[in-house]
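Recap quiz, item 2
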Amino acid sequence: DTGVSQNPRHKITKRGQNVTFRCDPISEHNRLYWYRQTLGQGPEFLTYFQNEAQLEKSRLLSDRFSAERPKGSFSTLEIQRTEQGDSAMYLCASSDPQGGGNTIYFGEGSWLTVV
Amino acid sequence: DQQVKQNSPSLSVQEGRISILNCDYTNSMFDYFLWYKKYPAEGPTFLISISSIKDKNEDGRFTVFLNKSAKHLSLHIVPSQPGDSAVYFCAASAYFGNEKLTFGTGTRLTIIP
């Protein structure tokens, strides 16, 4: 499978705990994105990387959220001191604009439930 | 504010007929538009796109129409098949090559056998 891979697929955590999600993009895709989707809404942009550089962050990304892509390959999204409002599906996506592709390809998402 | 709007939360269509999903946008800077399909518990899957220099793009059973003056686009699926039952999201970006997408809230399409 050469698609975007995310894990864990599901995470249930207690309020106040930290959680980390990992994303492995499509091989050689230099752009990597994080989106969040809540019930009844479309995905909302959180942040994106060009290789290892984080180029843009949404105002939705509070200081409890941090994303990294240390070697320009996989990425992690960490949420510290989780709150019930963080419950959502976190989607990772990748693209290769330099290769001529303008399409963003999404992974299957990581569901977070904060109890 | 909702810059991309899908005003129909759901749509039911008989198998074999045409499905028409609509999307409106407010940001005149948007010039690249995409449709994604999403099954439950999965990530969105790209279907078809259109840039603002065109008013129609076709790919098999899927056709997207863009009316820039009305800030409106639509997705036509013909003929509709049971496997098309899913949630469809319209998305837009501010300039070609910037894939930071703004999504609508989705339309749940149900194809009735």
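DSSP finds no helices and eleven strands in chain A.
Chain A has a mean pLDDT of 92.
End of item.
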